[in-house]
Amino acid sequence: MARLTTSFVQSVAIAISLLINFSRASPNITAELGPFLSSDATIIFPGSAEFLVATDRDNEQAPPTYAVVVEVATESDVQATVRYANRHNISFLATTGLHGGTSALGNLQQGINVRMRKMNATTIAADGLSATFGGGILSLEVRDALWAAGKQTVTGACECVGLVGPLLGGGHGYLQGFYGLISDNLISARVVLANGEAVSVSATENSDLFWALQGAGHNFGILTEVTSRIYDVPSTNWAYAQYIYTHDKVEALFSQLNTWTSNGTTSMPVEFVNKNIFARIPGIDADNAVIIFNIFYQGADVVPTEYTAPLLAIGPAVTAANATDYPGLTLIDSTTVDSAVCQQHDAVNMMFPISIKSYNIEAQRAAFNSFNELTADATFINSAVLFEGYSTQAVKAVPSNNTAFPHRADNYLITPVVSYAVNSTLDSKAIEFGDNFRQALHEADGSAELHTYVNYAHGDETLQETYGYEAWRLARLQTLKKKYDPDRKFSFYAPI
Ligand SMILES: Cc1cc2nc3c(=O)[nH]c(=O)nc-3n(C[C@H](O)[C@H](O)[C@H](O)COP(=O)(O)OP(=O)(O)OC[C@H]3O[C@@H](n4cnc5c(N)ncnc54)[C@H](O)[C@@H]3O)c2cc1C
Ligand SMILES: *[C@@H]1O[C@H](CO)[C@@H](O)[C@H](O)[C@H]1NC(C)=O
Ligand SMILES: *[C@@H]1O[C@H](CO)[C@@H](O)[C@H](O)[C@H]1NC(C)=O
Ligand SMILES: *[C@@H]1O[C@H](CO)[C@@H](O)[C@H](O)[C@H]1NC(C)=O
Ligand SMILES: *[C@@H]1O[C@H](CO)[C@@H](O)[C@H](O)[C@H]1NC(C)=O
Ligand SMILES: *[C@@H]1O[C@H](CO)[C@@H](O)[C@H](O)[C@H]1NC(C)=O
Ligand SMILES: *[C@@H]1O[C@H](CO)[C@@H](O)[C@H](O)[C@H]1NC(C)=O
Ligand SMILES: *[C@@H]1O[C@H](CO)[C@@H](O)[C@H](O)[C@H]1NC(C)=O
């Protein structure tokens, strides 16, 4: 009798689990979710051209895979999709610009891609001080919609990157010296939480979540809409100077930058943005990498001579200089939608970020040499190292505990981008290079703390490196994670 009961219970358990597994393996999403979606939403299955467009990532380091894409058009579509996914225990991820590359993304397999791109509207407030943007808007769309009204705000530098993705990790861009990070401009947002509930966040509503979204936001929800501060466009242009130098100029260039900042103890003027790149340009030097040195200077038609004269004296191989308006910057910076960084092309683009305060000249030389060695192998010839020196005045003006973003004191954002056609046998070499590169810069920096920008994260960084070393900061984030996402549904981007 006891045996019979046990086996009966077992059979029922097996039957139930088969049923659950069956409904989990093949729930009919068209029939079950479709009726709850708005008329503009679509469900897209593998095998279609639309599916490829919605899932083709910029960086194939650790790509997530999807059983289905739900192209949402309203907040309630997002809620219905999250609830459907939860009912069937299917993982999900919001996507916008598809430029995220951190390795935790690869933990999402056969999930639901909550495609945000249809939510791309811009509405400028009547007082002209703020605008509300759809959660799936791109940098380009933000910039152009505001520009048409004589306005601007902080976005990432790359036209094809989302607004919200960068915002959730802080968000660096050309205008940050004047207005702060992308996230510093956030006034309020609508957020769909892990359980499908939609809430408003601001300094006065769910302010704890508002704090966390500004720097650790990938852990907490799907943003359907954000309202941010916007600004009048100044009447002046952006001057630029672009110089390309051969390999022997590394010391002179970074020493010059250090001279201007008294070795990192003072800031460059707020108007001054410096972005440099180590890259291979065989037409300039067939045997070695080169240094592309860029200055973007807001408020003038010519970069002031005090900056250009010493740089010209160093002896660039190629020079270009002119002025442009704000939307014209991306053409000069090679970050337009037509540029190489905006093409999706089955490539790995591994990043290993480190944020620092000043340049150590010997370390810059060693960094250049290691990059030169890596890219001597044609397999890695499209790789680069980015040295981003956006001005920081308005970033530093915000108290460090105001938001979750932990790295306000740093001046330079550096990352190798190790680029190659997808081929897993090359991954270990890329990782070895990136780890050594970052470690060497960290040791030269002399700081006990390694700071890694979450939006560039490789994926193997510690919580401290990514979200800050202060114990109170991590404790607060962990408490908020338990409160807003106890089942860890948002675990595919530098998870807490
Ligand atoms: C070529 C290139 C240029 C870049 N330029 C800059 C730059 O200038 N400044 C800068 O700060 N960073 C920059 N980044 C880094 C960028 O911040 C991250 O890659 C960011 O994750 C990209 O967001 P996305 O929407 O394009 O990508 P996705 O891969 O679509 O999204 C990335 C992450 O954001 C989440 N996400 C997207 N939309 C939403 C939403 N509406 N609600 C909730 N979560 C959402 C996704 O779930 C995912 O976790 C750049 C990266 C690349 C590859
Ligand atoms: C799913 O449901 C839709 C709509 O009810 C139906 O047209 C379709 O044939 C179903 N698909 C499968 C695989 O059963
Ligand atoms: C949900 O899925 C996860 C991983 O896919 C699994 O570990 C977990 O046990 C599942 N939960 C339920 C209730 O089936
Ligand atoms: C942007 O939004 C408009 C209006 O909803 C829509 O027609 C368009 O398709 C959206 N863009 C993308 C790329 O989805
Ligand atoms: C900057 O550092 C260099 C090299 O260590 C040193 O020679 C120089 O005096 C420093 N300059 C300032 C202003 O601190
Ligand atoms: C400078 O830019 C202006 C405006 O884009 C353009 O008309 C002009 O040809 C440029 N001059 C040079 C020398 O590139
Ligand atoms: C930041 O710290 C200051 C001083 O300790 C405190 O007054 C303030 O409330 C803190 N702000 C936040 C958002 O925690
Ligand atoms: C992958 O890289 C290895 C090592 O360089 C090379 O031998 C192999 O041919 C590559 N595979 C493809 C498909 O390109």
TrEMBL record:
Keyword annotations: FAD, Flavoprotein, Oxidoreductase, Signal
Keyword Signal assigned: yes
Molecular function in Gene Ontology: FAD binding; oxidoreductase activity
Entries under Pfam families matching the protein: BBE (PF08031), FAD_binding_4 (PF01565)
Keyword field contains Ribosomal protein: no
PANTHER family noted in UniProt: BINDING OXIDOREDUCTASE, PUTATIVE (AFU_ORTHOLOGUE AFUA_1G17690)-RELATED, FAD-BINDING PCMH-TYPE DOMAIN-CONTAINING PROTEIN-RELATED
Protein's recorded name: FAD-binding PCMH-type domain-containing protein
Lineage: Eukaryota, Fungi, Dikarya, Ascomycota, Pezizomycotina
